[in-house]
């Protein structure tokens, strides 16, 4: 899968955490609390494409007291970055060996780090026991055919956040915005290691597939709302978007460069995402 730097993931983490839809997240937390009351043992959560562990750091402090997380990523350097970031984030580190054991906000959290190629080995990952499969900013990178495989195998509740949905609004507006966005979407749907990526259609495809399998599915909008406080993120976002469009050749180099210069100074920026929670009917 196409890689992301730990620096980029750290830069976007505050915006990611702000953007999550709180109402949908509250439903997930309520269901997991109910599950924890029904049986002994830690909650088991599997985070797909975990990167440097941002999804865990957002969700774990809100969950029941005892948790076991498996962070799954293709990039061993990002898993090491996740370990380091979680150690710094923790109130107390109990042990740091194959699995990291820590305490945060009186939550006892065990983290297992699993290096896995999800494009070929998703079956093995989903075969492991779990109470929740989760992911952040992941499913827009995968192919529709892979989503069909994934949804066909899924038997566990799924909570995924920050799936890019293609909606963007920058201010002030620029004449080239529409052409740039169209070209960016074309780049989003290129192969990111899973085949031609679903890109902005991913959340809708997943919802349709899961409903067809009898899952109860809820979704909510979770856009980044960026302003002057997020200047570094806006600049990196504009630079990265311009680079992606440049690779497509669909917009002239001069127009791409002009757009990038303007957008690095944008007043505000909204980037659309979708959060989704899917539960088997019997859950």
How would you describe the overall organization of this protein?
The structure is a single chain. The protein has 283 residues and is an alpha/beta fold. The chain is 43% helix and 26% strand. It has ten helices and ten strands. It is globular and about 60 Å long. The mean pLDDT is 95.
Features:
43% helix; globular; 283 residues; 26% strand; ten-stranded mixed sheet; alpha/beta; single chain; 10 strands
Strand content: 25-35%
Count the strands?
Answer: 10
Would you tell me the overall average pLDDT?
95
What global shape is seen? Answer: globular
Number of helices: 10
Radius of gyration: 19 Å
Distance between the termini: 32 Å
Largest sheet: 10 strands, mixed
Series of secondary-structure elements, N-terminal to C-terminal: HHEHEHEEEHEHEHHEEHHE
Spans where pLDDT lies below 50 across 5 or more residues: none
Helix/strand/pairing class, anyone? alpha/beta
Q: Which bin fits the share of residues in helices?
A: 40-55%
What topology does this entry show?
Blueprint: H1 6-19, H2 22-38, E1 43-48, H3 54-59, E2 66-73, H4 76-89, E3 92-96, E4 99-104, E5 107-115, H5 118-126, E6 132-136, H6 144-153, E7 158-171, H7 177-188, H8 202-212, E8 216-221, E9 224-226, H9 231-248, H10 253-263, E10 268-279
Parallel strand pairs: 1-2, 1-6, 2-5, 6-7
Antiparallel strand pairs: 3-4, 4-5, 7-10, 8-10, 9-10
Helix pairs in contact: 5-6, 6-8, 7-9, 9-10
Concise description?
Helix content is 43%, strand content 26%. With 283 residues, the protein is of the alpha/beta class.
């Amino acid at each position: 899968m196409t890689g992301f730097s730990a620096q980029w993931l750290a830069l976007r983490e505050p915006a990611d955490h702000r953007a999550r839809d709180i109402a949908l997240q509250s439903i997930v937390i309520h269901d997991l609390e109910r599950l924890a009351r029904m049986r002994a043992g830690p909650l088991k959560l599997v985070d797909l494409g975990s990167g440097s562990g941002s999804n865990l750091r957002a969700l774990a402090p809100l969950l029941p007291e005892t948790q076991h997380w498996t962070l799954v990523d293709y990039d061993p350097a990002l898993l090491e970055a996740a370990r380091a970031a979680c150690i710094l984030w923790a109130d107390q580190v109990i042990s740091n060996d194959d699995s990291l054991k820590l305490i945060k906000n009186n939550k006892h959290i065990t983290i297992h780090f699993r290096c896995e190629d999800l494009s070929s080995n998703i079956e093995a990952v989903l075969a492991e026991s779990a109470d929740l499969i989760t992911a952040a900013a992941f499913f827009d990178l995968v192919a529709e055919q892979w989503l069909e495989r994934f949804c066909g195998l899924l038997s566990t509740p799924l909570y995924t956040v920050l799936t890019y949905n293609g909606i963007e609004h920058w201010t002030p507006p620029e004449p080239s915005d529409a052409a740039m966005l169209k070209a960016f979407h074309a780049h989003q749907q290129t192969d990111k290691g899973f085949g031609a990526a679903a890109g902005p259609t991913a959340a809708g495809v997943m919802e349709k597939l899961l409903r067809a399998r009898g899952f109860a599915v809820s979704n909510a909008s979770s856009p980044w709302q960026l302003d002057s406080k997020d200047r570094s993120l806006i600049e990196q976002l504009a630079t990265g978007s311009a680079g992606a469009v440049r690779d497509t050749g669909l917009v002239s180099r001069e127009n791409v460069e002009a757009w990038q210069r303007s957008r690095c100074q944008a007043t505000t920026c909204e980037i659309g995402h979708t959060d989704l929670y899917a539960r088997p009917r019997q859950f």
